[in-house]
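[audit] Reproducing an earlier prediction to check determinism. Same input, same settings, fresh worker. If the tokens differ from the archived copy the diff job will pick it up downstream; this log only records the rerun itself.
[audit] input (111 residues):
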Amino acid sequence: MKKLLILLLLPILAYTQSPCDADICVVQFNAGWNSGNDVDWHGKLKDCEIKYIDIAANPDVASKYEIVVVPTIVVFNGKEVKRFQADISFAIAATKSEVQEVVDEILMDQF
């Protein structure tokens, strides 16, 4: 029974685990064909690891993290904490301040 439960939970665990080495990580999932909507401020976030994943070049990653629209920004703290997705025009409405606030809240919760 334990083995069956573990096998059933593996896809869920894979989805929630961070693709980064650092505890706090902000990942921008986008596709090369949508590079005009890359999030310019993503690399300027502080106190976190930054990662960019091109889902067109890595389609398995899109399904693993359930990316349904690009760009998508996901904040991880070992597992997914918050997700920001693009609108129908493939542009993201989230601001640098909103994402940085999530990172800052994680840092403050560690004290």
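[audit] rerun output stored. Observation attached for the diff report: The beta strands are 24-30, 49-54, 72-77, 80-85.
[audit] end
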